[in-house]
Amino acid sequence: GQNIDQPTEMTATEGAIVQINCTYQTSGFNGLFWYQQHAGEAPTFLSYNVLDGLEEKGRFSSFLSRSKGYSYLLLKELQMKDSASYLCAVMDSNYQLIWGAGTKLIIKP
Amino acid sequence: GAVVSQHPSWVICKSGTSVKIECRSLDFQATTMFWYRQFPKQSLMLMATSNEGSKATYEQGVEKDKFLINHASLTLSTLTVTSAHPEDSSFYICSARALGTGGPQETQYFGPGTRLLVL
Lengths: 109, 119
Hints:
The structure holds two protein chains of two kinds. By secondary structure, chain A is mainly beta. Chain A starts with a strand and ends with a strand. Chain A is globular. By secondary structure, chain B is an all-beta fold. In chain B, the strands form two sheets. In chain B, strands 2, 4, 5, 6, 9, 10 and 11 form a seven-stranded mixed β-sheet that branches. A four-stranded antiparallel β-sheet of chain B has the order 1-3-8-7, with no helix packed on it. The mean pLDDT of chain B is 90. The interface between A and B is medium-sized, with 21 and 20 residues.
């Protein structure tokens, strides 16, 4: 079966760095997406990785290792507004998105 | 770019009525649109995948006669909840995917969602 695993909840301190991990097992691979979803709102696109390595975009970076079926989202200089759920999703060989359950990130002052 | 709108944002209706939700891609053509449902504090649940000009593909457990989907053009898909009941109350979110065969063009961009409350 297809499976995406990510931690249910994480807590971090304002100004710090946090890494949210995602492991996956899917039928084929056409890229991995990270989305941010604030409570009561729809998800917004953060990043896309299809090749191994690190993609940096401001305070957010996303890493992919296809051989390990592993990705992480790195958030630096955490701000209170970063409190949200972070969704990992993998596009399979049929170009269908397989969603993780999301990681709720709580930022404390 | 890549803006998806959804209308209405809020619906309150009586049990037994039908509710129509529109999803539009404003600045790109969407060959495929997706409809999700999300209950409080739960994950996104894919309901159906809609391709322009063809019938929607429904996920297991989703009643196609209750949730009617029409993808009439490359920029518009509609979801009609027929004979809505209180258990249909949820957050309905659409997303749209641009033309392409892979890469960032395959990104799904989400509408803002529609909150449905059935009394």
